[in-house]
Each structure stands twice: as C-alpha cells, then as structure tokens.
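We store sequence with structure; for instance:
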Amino acid sequence: MTDSVDDLREIDGSISREDIKKIIPYGDPFLFVDKVIHLDKKEIEASFHISKSLSFIPAHFVGFPVIPAAILTEGFGQSGTILIRYNIENHDSKEILIYRTEDARFFSPVFPDKTVCYKVGLKNLSNRAARLEGVTYVNNKKIASFRLLMTILDRTQFHQMVI
C-alpha cells in the first residue's frame, strides 16, 4: 500500500483498479471497485463493472443471476475505505473494517453486465471510527442506500489481537 493517495491519481483525478490495490488491502477476486471517479475529503464516487465471468454469478439464484446484496454492501464499504484512508495520516499502518451496518436498503435488483456507481459521503471521522452514508446507482437509478460505521485499528495491534 502507499501513503500518498494523491500520487496515484490520473490527470483527470481518477484512480485505476491497479492503483486502488495500492490503497486498500484487497485483490482479485474480492475487489469490488474498478475505478475511483472522484475523490475529495468529504466524498468519493467509484464504480465497479459486474462481469458475467465473476465466479459467484452462476451459483447465486441459478438461472436468474441477481447480484448478492452483500457484494453491493462490500463494494460500498471498500469505496468508503478509500475515502477514510484519504483522510487519515499513516493510513497504510491501519486496518479499516465495517463495524456496523446501521442501515442498508435495496430498491432494485442488480444483474451482470451492469456498472455499479458508489457515492459515499464521510459524515464523521475520529481516530477510531468513521461514519459513511450514501447511495449506489446503476444507470443513474438508485438501487441501494447505506449507512455504515467503520472501525479504524492499528494494524500491528489488531494482528496481535487476533493471532
């Protein structure tokens, strides 16, 4: 991971999938953010194209491949993790995890070959926690809204705690 998120931006301000992997500790096949479209200290807009080739597609609602709500929640959380890391010093020495899903509402199913857009706002930030709030869209149609409480932990202390 890298300490300076700004160093990874393209000329248009976006961040690519490969550079996202340098910011958050995720990789294939469990990275549900392809691109950061916009990022400032208060909000992030990111996207993920849901390919038919994802391994879980054929097995979830066989014959009617609805994307699991947990995947949409995870993508929203990963986008929010990028936003939190952008706002904290020494972010590469931290682990950021979903602590509580305070609210999650799903308004429409999502299917393969669609691009999901996450719009996440940072509502509160302290040394130990952050509150995220926002919506998820497909083709400018709101498909979900979320309010998540994230915990921010020192990586070394957290790893010692769980071993």
Summary: The chain is about 20% helix and 40% strand.
